[in-house]
Amino acid sequence: MKYCGQCGELLLLNQGNRNRAKMICPNCKWKWYSNPVPIVVVLVSAGKDNIVYVRQNQYPKGVWSLVSGYVNRGESAEAAAVREVREETGLDTKVEKFMGSIVSNNAPDDIYLMFHCKVIDGKLKAGDDADEVKIAPVSIDELVTNSVAEKMVIDFQNELKYTGGV
C-alpha cells in the first residue's frame, strides 16, 4: 500500500508503539497495517503410511509439495483446508488435527496454518493449482528443503514413529 485509502496522500512508514510497523497518512492520520495473509497447508494422509503430494509445473522437475491455498474472507481455516484438498486433488477429507502455525522468513507476508486431514472419499485427480497429484509413502525426499511442507512431513513422521501409525 503506497497511498492513503481515505484521501490518496502518500503514506509514510511509522514504527508505532510496540515496534509494530504501519503506514500512516500524514494528512488524515488513516493507518494501514501490513498483516500477514492466512494460508492453509494440508498434509493429507491416505492410509497408514501414505500421504498426498501435489506438484505444479512451476516447481523444478521432481519437486513436490503439499496441498495449500488461501483462506477466503468469511471462511474458517478448517473449511479452507478441506476445500483446498477437494479443489487440488478431488478428494474429500476431514480435519484430524491442527498442526500449528508459522510465519516463514522466506514469506513474512504470509501466515501458514498447518493441518492434518484424512481422506474419507473421492477419486485422486489433479485440479485447481495442481498439475500432478500422487499418493506415496511419507517422505521428505522430493520436498523443498527447509519448506513448511518439509517441516510438516518431518513432524508427521515423528508422530507415526511415536504412535505406530495414523
From TrEMBL:
Identify the Gene3D superfamilies for this entry.
Nucleoside Triphosphate Pyrophosphohydrolase (3.90.79.10)
Q: Which GO terms describe its molecular function?
A: hydrolase activity
Cofactor(s), names only, from the UniProt record: Mg(2+)
**SUPFAM superfamilies noted in UniProt:** Nudix
| Keywords from the UniProt entry | Hydrolase, Magnesium
Nudix hydrolase domain segment(s): 34-160
Stated family: Belongs to the Nudix hydrolase family.
| Name by which UniProt lists this protein | NUDIX hydrolase
